[in-house]
Write a structure and sequence with these properties.
Elements (H helix, E strand, L loop, with lengths): L1 E5 L3 E7 L6 E7 L4 H13 L11 E4 L5 E6 L6 H8 L4 H20 L12 E3 L5 E3 L9 H5 L15 H4 L6 H17 L5 E2 L5 H10 L12 H10 L11 H11 L20 E2 L2
Parallel strand pairs: 8-9
Antiparallel strand pairs: 1-2, 2-3, 3-5, 4-5, 6-7
Helix pairs in contact: 3-6, 3-9, 6-8, 8-9
């Protein structure tokens, strides 16, 4: 076994299953957060077999009390690492990503699961080239989970959290729509939509994210129809967003193959950060 990744709450090992010879990922979760393991197992069991969501092959507990989860190892890495390697994605590819992950989200919502931490690093690229949503450790699957505010905000990724969640609300399907929309925004730009300066406090950054509108992507050469779809998905007011993941997917479907051309040049903007919060 070798370490494939480390995060704030878990370590992922790459191993070979002795019975099948397949490469698998073993995610060992920090024992300081036992609820995270419970949430992830419950969520993945509910959505088992859903296209676009990582499969849970098994789970158990180590002698030291840590919980581990076993899933297929996806060697092509995450959308975040691929964006870093290749730069921004063209519109047709982003529509494909949005449709695949949006359909997975719609199915999860139908099973009563809110993901709550959608971001480029939580979308993996399968060996078949399809995209899969991972890391359901902050998912909500029960009414008790939905009303629990104890870790509502800062266990999540602030950069991709919906403004109402940052403000302390429990969030709903529209919060996941926002995070997916912001993820698509990021890969269309090729960089994080919000880029904090080292000197900026977390409080100021959170306030900026919650209230500062994102520039419409058409400013950066993205075709206006796609830019407008992303703009609606990432509206600060949840009432202005698509009201479900399925509605978001329908909007992307209507764009269809009409946006197969690459991004237009936008010389005044390419290479600049969307936001750089500094003094």
């Amino acid at each position: 076994m070798v370490i494939a990744a480390r995060g704030g709450t878990s370590t992922v090992l790459r191993a070979v299953a002795t019975d099948t010879g397949a490469h698998v990922a073993i995610k060992i979760i920090d024992p300081a957060d036992p609820d995270r393991a419970r949430r992830e197992i419950e969520a993945l069991r509910r959505v088992a077999g859903t296209a676009g969501i990582i499969d849970l092959l098994g789970w158990g507990r180590l002698a030291d009390g840590r919980t581990y989860l076993v899933s297929p190892f996806l060697s092509r890495g995450s959308l975040a690492s691929e964006t870093t390697r290749r730069g921004r994605y063209d519109p047709a590819a982003v529509i494909t990503i949005g449709r695949q992950i949006g359909e997975a989200l719609a199915a999860a919502h139908q099973h009563g699961v809110l993901h709550r931490d959608i971001k480029p690093s939580n979308i993996m690229i399968g060996d078949d080239g399809r995209y899969r949503l991972i890391d359901f450790g902050t998912a909500r699957t029960s009414q008790a989970d939905l009303t629990d505010q104890t870790d509502q905000t800062f266990s999540l990724t602030v950069m991709y959290s919906a403004p109402e969640v940052i403000d302390g609300a429990r969030g709903d399907e529209r919060s996941d729509v926002y995070s997916l929309g912001l993820t698509l925004y990021a890969v269309l730009r090729g960089e994080q939509p919000f880029e904090p300066a080292a000197s900026v406090s977390l409080t100021r950054l959170v306030n900026e994210i919650a209230v500062t509108p994102l520039p419409n992507l058409a400013t950066f050469g993205v075709p206006a129809p796609l830019a407008d779809v992303i703009d609606r998905a990432t509206a600060k007011d949840p009432g202005r967003r698509y009201q479900s993941a399925a509605e978001f997917v329908d909007a992307l479907d209507r764009l269809g193959s009409t946006l197969s051309s690459p991004l237009r040049d936008a010389d005044d903007h390419v290479g600049n950060r969307v936001h750089n919060f500094g003094p």
